[in-house]
């Protein structure tokens, strides 16, 4: 029995009302007969723009007693919709057709051509990526790995409930006008200091706590606050204070907190660590924590932000792991901890994460969009040199402004602007100095090196196209895995206006939120809940910690992904004096071009036969009913067609299906040496070579469809549930 049966049954039992899965095979009906089109097999996908695939087809003529089985070789343009996680296939051009014997008549070929002409289709991105050949070389891997930092943060382990109160280095206190209170600017908590009493007050959940020192321990609940807090309660600038007044003693004290002045990861255990074995791997995982914590060969292994750390004792000295034991590659993918395979070098999951990180996000910006853009500065523009470059970076602004010679370049929302002045006016940039792409990872502007002017530009001068990859939003390739954040600490900036009011913004932080890779949706996000602060998941200082919005890029996913595709750099954030949980207004939104009403790019007709441009399609129009990639047919490297029935592979030849046993005598896959783990040299990107299909390759492709559809369906189900 085919694996498709088990998968379709599983989907039906858990998501009978699920809409949103593309239906394969699809059938196109014409006057002289019908054409069944099955799921494509990828030959190459250079730059993830133009795709070459084989589609298995079955043509049934009205005059025939038997179907004609063959393949169609297609070149097509692709557009990735990251929000829907689909790939639109348009501008399809038939390069060749392949039918056995006399099956390929002119009528058959004409109907086949009509089945593809002028049609725009979509397939799940999760499936397409898994169908890439095993020897697919990830684009961009030839470039040297940036000097990312792999030193461990401070790692704290607690067997009782505790929270982190993070302050970026030493606390910066700002006076509150009309009171004798000060508040700490550079934290994601409500922390106050009473200069009259010389005491500290912290709002922990809805409870006020007091201490003589801003340190761990010694905090007591209180219902007696200095009278100045009553003034705060009257101001809309302090909404959380308003909601927690008058102060009262709780029936149960809130969870205590640790005060951290450096990047810290908290491993929260529910009591002493409890271990459970992972199959036959000799690895045990800690079951009573949300962290990825393991025990193997008398050592503890901790995975966070895509990086592995090791220690002989839980509360001992943690060190970066330079060579992960091979046992971790044997963790079953369907295990509760199977997601860590995406961070285990040498696994197919890790390679899939590398491919995801290299996918291009395309942005089109109206050339007049930036004319009225205002870049705010705290005082006169100030710049600091960027290490090992001839560049300078704007220091007292939340915008990413870079000075090169006598010009200023601004990167915002995945697009580049330039000006002859640090304050504008700004224009869309069509050329970027090479020097900008030498910015090191130790500089907070490093992520802009992943934003480039697109190779494809529209014929009209209305828009300019830009392309960025996952590095812009905080996910970086190490050639063997994808990690989150650069690992470097970028101190936050606090500036004061003439009225002594602070302006504060923080840079991205690699640690502090127990960040892990989420395979469903392919994003980095937290595995534990943390206080918000400065508006957004993960709070102050995280990649994506600022609330995201998108006016010129693909909309940010809404499936728990506020931390995934959003970037702390996609739009400026300027805080104002007042409640740290309240953000200032953004000054870009009204100036940037809005997404087209359809939310889609227009497809350009590249065919030579004058065929009308295919209509743009939306995700909702793709799914008229519940379906799945239930197709059990596959194309080979030269258009041969295979199918899977009753756990047996067969090939179509001369009007008949031959079983796998006879096939294996004719098509034996040549043996190839296995690439070395972690030391494979990547040359320039070339499409994967053709190779004869073996049973193992056919099994791999079938599994790729199943896993891809499972991931895609989970994504769709989660997305639909979030709308309700």
- Share of β-strand residues: 25-35%
The biggest sheet, with number of strands, parallel, antiparallel or mixed sense and barrel status, is: 7 strands, antiparallel
Oligomeric status of the shown chains? single chain
- Mean pLDDT score: 78
- Envelope shape: globular
Work out the number of β strands: 42
User: What fraction, in percent, of the residue positions are helical?
Assistant: 10-25%
Q: Give unreliable regions as ranges.
A: 1-20, 529-628, 671-691
Given helix and strand content, the structural type is alpha+beta
Number of H- or I-type helical stretches: 9
Distance between the ends: 37 Å
Radius of gyration from the alpha-carbon trace, in angstroms: 29 Å
Can you tell me about this structure?
The model is unreliable at 1-20, 529-628 and 671-691 (pLDDT under 50). Among the domains are: 3-141 and 628-723, no CATH class; 170-260, no CATH class; 361-468, no CATH class. The protein has 9 helices and 42 strands. It is an alpha+beta fold and 724 residues long. Strands 1, 2, 3, 4, 5, 6 and 7 form a 7-stranded antiparallel β-sheet that branches. It starts with a helix and ends with a helix. Helix 1 packs parallel to helix 9. Strand 21 (299-304) and strand 22 (307-311) form a beta hairpin.
């Amino acid at each position: 029995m085919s694996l498709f049966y088990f998968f379709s049954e599983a989907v039906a039992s858990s998501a009978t009302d699920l809409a949103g899965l593309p239906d394969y095979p699809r059938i196109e009906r014409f006057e002289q007969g019908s054409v069944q089109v099955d799921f494509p097999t990828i030959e190459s996908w250079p730059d993830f723009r133009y795709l070459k695939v084989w589609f298995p087809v079955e043509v049934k003529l009205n005059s025939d007693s038997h179907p004609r089985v063959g393949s169609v070789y297609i070149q097509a343009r692709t557009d990735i919709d990251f929000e829907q996680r689909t790939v639109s296939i348009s501008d399809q051009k038939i390069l060749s057709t392949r039918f056995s014997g006399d099956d390929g008549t002119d009528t058959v070929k004409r109907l086949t051509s009509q089945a593809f002409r002028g049609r725009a289709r979509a397939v799940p991105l999760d499936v397409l990526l898994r169908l890439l050949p095993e020897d697919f070389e990830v684009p961009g891997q030839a470039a040297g790995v940036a000097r990312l930092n792999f030193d461990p943060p401070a790692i704290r382990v607690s067997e009782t409930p505790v929270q982190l109160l993070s302050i970026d280095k030493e606390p910066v206190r700002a006076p509150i006008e009309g009171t004798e209170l000060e508040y700490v600017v550079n934290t994601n908590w409500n922390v106050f200091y009473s200069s009259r009493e010389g005491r500290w007050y912290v709002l922990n959940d809805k409870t006020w706590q007091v201490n003589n020192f801003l340190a761990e321990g010694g905090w007591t609940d209180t219902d007696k606050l200095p009278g100045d807090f009553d003034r705060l309660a009257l101001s809309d600038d302090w909404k959380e204070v308003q909601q927690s007044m008058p102060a009262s003693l709780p029936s149960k004290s809130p969870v205590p907190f640790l005060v951290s002045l450096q990047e810290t990861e908290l491993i929260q255990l529910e009591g002493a660590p409890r271990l459970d074995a992972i199959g036959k791997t000799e690895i045990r995982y800690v079951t009573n924590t949300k962290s990825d914590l393991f025990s193997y060969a008398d050592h503890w292994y901790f995975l966070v932000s895509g990086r592995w750390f090791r220690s002989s004792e839980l509360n001992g000295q943690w060190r970066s792991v330079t060579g992960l034991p091979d046992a971790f590659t044997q963790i079953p993918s369907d295990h509760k901890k199977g997601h860590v395979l995406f961070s285990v070098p040498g696994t197919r999951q890790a390679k899939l994460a590398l491919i995801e990180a290299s996918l291009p996000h395309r942005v089109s910006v109206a050339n007049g969009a930036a004319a009225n853009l205002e870049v705010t500065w705290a005082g006169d523009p100030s710049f600091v040199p960027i290490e090992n470059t001839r560049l300078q970076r704007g220091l007292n602004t939340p915008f990413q402004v870079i000075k090169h010679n006598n010009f200023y370049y601004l990167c915002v929302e995945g697009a580049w602007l330039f000006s002859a002045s640090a304050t504008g006016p700004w224009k869309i940039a069509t050329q970027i100095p090479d020097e900008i792409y030498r910015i090191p990872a130790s500089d907070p502007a490093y992520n802009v090196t992943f934003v480039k002017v697109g190779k494809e530009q529209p014929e009209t001068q209305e828009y300019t196209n830009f392309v960025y990859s996952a590095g812009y939003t905080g996910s970086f390739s190490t050639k063997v895995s994808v990690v989150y954040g650069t690992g470097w600490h970028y101190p936050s900036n606090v500036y004061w206006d003439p009225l002594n009011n602070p302006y504060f913004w923080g840079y991205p932080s690699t640690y502090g939120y127990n960040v892990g890779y989420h395979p469903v949706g392919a994003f980095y996000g937290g595995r534990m809940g943390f206080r918000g602060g400065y508006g957004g998941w993960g709070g102050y200082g995280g990649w994506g910690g600022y609330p995201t919005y998108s006016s010129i890029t693909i909309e940010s996913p809404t499936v728990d992904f506020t931390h995934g595709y959003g970037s702390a750099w996609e739009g400026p954030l300027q805080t104002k004096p007042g409640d740290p949980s309240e953000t200032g207004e953004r000054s870009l939104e009204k100036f940037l071009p809005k997404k087209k009403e359809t939310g889609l790019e227009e497809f350009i007709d590249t065919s030579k036969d004058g065929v009308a441009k295919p209509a743009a399609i939306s995700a909702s129009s793709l799914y008229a009913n519940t379906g799945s990639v239930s197709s059990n047919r596959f194309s080979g490297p030269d258009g041969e067609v295979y199918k899977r029935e009753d756990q047996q592979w067969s090939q179509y030849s001369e009007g008949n299906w031959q079983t796998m046993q006879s096939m294996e005598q004719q098509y034996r896959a040549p043996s190839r040496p296995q690439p070395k783990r972690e030391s494979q040299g990547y040359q320039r990107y070339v499409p994967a070579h053709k190779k004869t299909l073996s049973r193992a390759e056919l099994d791999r492709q079938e599994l790729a469809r199943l896993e891809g559809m499972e991931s895609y369906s989970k994504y769709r189900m989660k997305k639909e549930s979030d709308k309700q």
